[in-house]
Design goal:
By secondary structure, the protein is α/β, with parallel strands linked by helices. It has ten helices and 25 strands. The N and C termini lie far apart (63 Å). This is Polysaccharide deacetylase family protein.
């Protein structure tokens, strides 16, 4: 009799645990469980360094801890060739993860590559090629040709693709890729380049970068990461003209096969504040779908889903960041914007399963103009990322 009672109690307890989420179709999975299928989480890194400090730099120890934790939790790392086969209709393992790096820093060879080899985690690196001939000319030392060939010589384990040749620059805070540059010289009188010159410059730059990378690996150079993640419709068309088949953004999201191959989302993993658990949370937040009608939302998950973040300040208050927008939650019923504007919530914030939850209508008060709900995917996204907007 006691055995039966205990069995019913255990069953009841498990049901309660599964239902005690903030009204979302989502729960954490254990090692070996299926977090998601037929999708790819594409991670973005820049610089792995134990002395330098920046928002895009993490230590070797943290890098190893992040990857090890994901492996322990059942995530499976894939090669760039597996990614391409997936985009063409092939299969990937459950919980697939693709590791990507941008910029071509030599720290990839000295610090990241040994960790990747140790953990058997493949990666693809998008290289800025303008300093390829003189890798110590750049502000942060770049990868040399010999280093690249050594890493890519092992086959599909490490690949390189283009981050353009000389387009990773800005003029008057505007990206070279999407801007008609101002002409130089007295005769120019502040004029900008003609449309034809702009188109020729973009295509020629990308093709130059591809030509520089071709001798360094066997596999085709046909993918690009947009400099600064900035692009527009015409720039994408020029990227296509240059022979590129896949283009990667910095827009957060989980990759699905039917997505635009020139708007591939990536999840930022290279910030020094991103702990192994937080990285798993960032991935899970992109997979998570919401039950309708929308009610209470797990705040951190929604913010991560649209590319924002939630942080605690010195006063133990939560601060929400989305682009240049910052809200501080000064109480369970009030938030104040960095410009002084205050918002009073209709319902107090709640904590469920150690997660702060917010009423959907109150979330709209904060981000209704920026973060919107997509009924097709049952996820949140930035308004600027909606096709046709």
């Amino acid at each position: 009799m006691r055995l039966v009672t205990n069995r019913y109690f255990i069953t009841f307890f498990l049901v309660v645990v599964l239902l005690a989420t903030c009204s979302v179709g989502y729960s954490y999975s254990q090692k070996g469980a299926r977090h998601y299928e037929d999708q790819i989480a594409v991670l973005l890194y820049h610089h792995i360094d134990d002395q330098a400090q920046s928002g895009g730099t993490i230590t070797t120890v943290l890098f190893r801890e992040q990857l090890s934790h994901l492996k322990q939790q059942g995530f499976q790392f894939i090669t760039f060739q597996q990614f391409k086969r997936f985009m063409e209709g092939g299969e990937v393992p459950d919980n697939a993860v693709l590791v990507t790096f941008d910029d071509g820093y030599s720290s990839f060879y000295t610090n990241a590559y040994p960790v990747l080899k140790q953990l058997s985690v493949p990666a693809v690196h998008f290289i800025i090629t303008k300093d390829l001939e003189n890798p110590h000319h750049s502000r942060i030392p770049s990868l040399s040709k010999d280093q690249i060939m050594e890493m890519t010589g092992a086959g599909d384990f490490i690949e390189v693709q283009t981050h353009t040749n000389n387009l990773h620059n800005k003029q008057s805070e505007k990206a070279y890729l999407t801007t008609r540059l101002k002409m130089e010289g007295k005769a120019a009188e502040g004029k900008t380049e003609e449309d034809a010159a702009y188109r020729d410059r973009i295509v020629a730059d990308i093709q130059t970068s591809v030509d520089k990378l071709k001798p360094l690996q066997i596999n085709e150079i046909d993918a690009l990461a947009y400099p600064f993640g900035i692009y527009h419709k015409q720039a994408t068309e020029l990227v296509k003209q240059a022979g590129i088949r896949y283009a990667f953004t910095v827009q957060p999201g989980i990759l699905e096969r039917d997505m635009d191959p020139y708007q591939i989302p990536r999840i930022n993993a290279g910030g020094p504040w991103i702990t192994p658990d937080m990285l798993m949370e960032k991935i899970q937040s992109q997979v998570m779908s919401f039950d309708e009608p929308l009610k209470t939302l797990p705040l951190r998950n929604v913010m991560e889903q649209v590319g924002g973040s939630v942080q605690k300040n010195a006063d133990n208050q939560l601060e929400l960041y989305l682009g240049k927008e910052k809200w501080k939650l000064i109480s369970p019923t009030e938030a104040v914007h960095s410009d002084g504007k205050k918002v009073t919530f209709s319902k107090p914030l709640k904590t469920k399963n150690k997660r702060t939850c917010i009423d959907y209508a109150d979330f709209q008060k904060l981000y209704g103009d920026f973060a919107v709900y997509d009924a097709n995917t049952r996820r949140f996204l930035l308004k600027s990322a909606i096709p046709g907007e």
